[in-house]
Specification:
The structure holds two protein chains of two kinds. By secondary structure, chain A is mainly α. Chain A has a domain at 179-402. Chain A contains 15 helices and eight strands. Chain A has a two-stranded antiparallel sheet. In chain A, a hairpin with a 4-residue loop joins strand 4 (269-276) and strand 5 (281-287). In chain A, helix 1 (3-18) packs parallel to helix 15 (404-435), helix 2 runs antiparallel to helix 3 and helix 7 crosses helix 12. Chain A starts with a helix and ends in a 16-residue tail after the last helix. Chain B is mostly helical. In chain B, 73% of the residues lie in helices and 3% in strands. Chain B is globular and about 55 Å long. Classes of the chains: A mainly alpha, B mainly alpha. Chain A: It comes from Nonlabens xylanidelens. Chain A: It is found in: Cell inner membrane. Chain A: GO terms for molecular function: electron transfer activity; heme binding; metal ion binding; oxidoreductase activity, acting on diphenols and related substances as donors, oxygen as acceptor.
Amino acid sequence: MDTEILARIQFAFTIAFHYIYPPLSIGIGLIMAIMEGLYLKTGNKQYEVLTRFWLKIFAITFGIGVATGIIMEFEFGTNWSVYSRYVGDIFGSALAAEGLFAFGLESTFLGILLFGWNRVSPKVHFFSTIMVFLGSMFSAVWIVVANSWQQTPAGYHIVGEGFDARAEVTDFWAMVFNPSSVDRIIHVWQGAFLAGTFLVLSVHAYYLLKGRYVEISKKAFKISLAVATIISLTQLLSGHSSADGVAVNQPAKLAAMEGHYEKSAPADLYLFGWVDNDTQEVTGIKLPGGLSFLVHQDFEEPITGLNAFPENERPGQVNAVFQFYHIMISIGMFLIGLTLYACYLWWRGTLFDKKWLLKIFAYSVLLPQIANQVGWFAAEMGRQPWIVYGHLRTDEGFSQEVSSNQILFSLILFLVVYTVLFLLFIYSVNKKIKHGPYDEAKNPDEFLKYV
Amino acid sequence: METFLGIDYPTLWYLVVGLLFSGYAILEGFDYGAGAWHLFFKKDLSRRIAINAIGPLWDANQVWLIIGGGALFAGFPVMYATMLSAMYIPFMLFLLLLVLRSSAIKFRSSEEMKWWRTTWDIIYFISNTLIAFLLGVVLGNVLQGFELGENYTYKGGIFFAFLSPYAIMAGFTTLSLFMTQGAIFLLLKTEGRLHSRLTFLLKKGMIFFIISFAVTSLYTLIFLPGVTDRFKEQPLFFALPILAFLAVANVPRLVSKKKYFQALIFSSLTMAFLLMLVAFQLYPVLLPSTIDPAFSVTIYNAASSQKSLGIMLTMVVVGAPLLAGYLIFLYKTFNGKVQLDDTSY
């Protein structure tokens, strides 16, 4: 295989694996901050038990997130050296800001969060929880800013030619607030909140089904359900706003998302379907003119299709972009339905009576994870063939001096190490869940003793 | 070119990156160094204490690597891209070892089984040792220069070229320096049997350091072209190796007086002086080309735009005090000897 493909596989694999963890940390961080805040406000020890329990799972998630994240920071240089030279002036400053303003904050307070229970006052501990949570949110900001700049470059000019060409920043804030960054930051945050809250929902649904830790599980479930409902609903808004931006800034990506080929015609909205890139046909269930309506509020308004772009300037994997995008949307819709129905039952006072619903929640932990992954795959594959939209092609961006054997070597190592790491993660989280927040074998009412 | 206090922006950024990597070497130096002693402790409890000595701190110490890497990428993208792609294999190994090391810290004490703990102990020991060694190897390679052609294209060997004799010597020097630093740090954080064992180990570590340092220095003076010229130009910089030597010579005295914190300061100073020596030796070059000096990566041809450097220098002015504040708060909270409790690893 050639170097470019291997470099892309390696990047996709390492970033997709990495992206299991930070969203979980951000989401669990939010719930943990709410729980600990409630503990400080009410003095109810049950919230402390919950905080301490989720902190243990947070610790593993965060740790793996950091470890796999460092690799990403250096992989730009090892595998994408041409790209790194091209964007360093811009991308680099976002990464540096991430380290200085976000990662520094979360990593230092992490020590106090994890090991400080017996050393600092509850208020200082709560403060540390908030700082770690904010730090992880800021991290997301800078990373998404950097990626958004690749999608919709702004605040820069290109200097030099050929090998020496590179983007230089002309307006820092225009670079930071490039056309897609705000929508995408919010969308990514919300995806992260959903990943975390659905893990909390899943674990406590499992406890409720087993009749374990019933009282605290009900509390945790309600907190997370409230957050999950608000977020999944508002996720729809940021998603819509994001798609509107794609329509303006990356028309080829939008066209690929709905398999729209005709140069300029009203575009349909598919519920699901299959794109044949050769015949340029989509088979599936659709709302005719639906995409036109979503973008222009008019079913007849034409939308630029893939054929408006030269063959070598449109995404190669149209069907993949289409599928990933639709899986994300379907999951989002399902989560809205699920949380709204659960809220309705909560209002009726029968939330915990329906076993089948708790079972769905127990398994739903996978859904936001899948949506986060496929959402990013749609965004990144839809950007192709560009690594910097409209300026630098992916097949020009990789390290020319690195051989395919070197990448194969590192890719195999990553596969082995990450597989082991993933198994360890599952094993150890599973063990912590099975063990539970406190030792139940003793009198459950006396759990406070074991805090 | 824009300047601040009469110093141009690339030079200022060179200082920033240098400070960040020095901070990384000093702080993660004792983390990695402590880990490189791991199998020298026989009891399970000693090993657990050793890990928990760095427990609350290592994540924060690692920040220096992350910011340093970001600063290099942001300020000297050409250097970042050229060095990492040319040193592909050592950096990939380094990164994977970092992952293994973090996993060992997290998972080692989570199970009681002996085989489990022994396996993680071995992984922890090997990853720390090799990380320290590889950092030195990369530094050795940078000092020696890369086979860089036009447009910074790397023309050197791909798989094993990074293991030149000089790089290996630099690797051992770094490892031994980190081990010295690590032993002093553990002396500061432990008591009892483990503590007396460390007093003994520290002596071995220092001997290891003095030998590797002497050999590497000799080799540098004899075989690395241009090193002596630099000193002839600026005799004042002879002070740096002498200061480094004096600082390390002060360590045994302070340790015998049980002033471990001061000893740690002095061994950190040794590192700082040596890194200043490296920085002085290279400046304004970042990566010498062994093919033609004209192809070398320098702070000027590698730098980002003046505008970008200006923005980032502002960030540093705002961010550095904040970061210093967090770190002081963290270190104050976990001051004193290790005490294992229910939150420990």
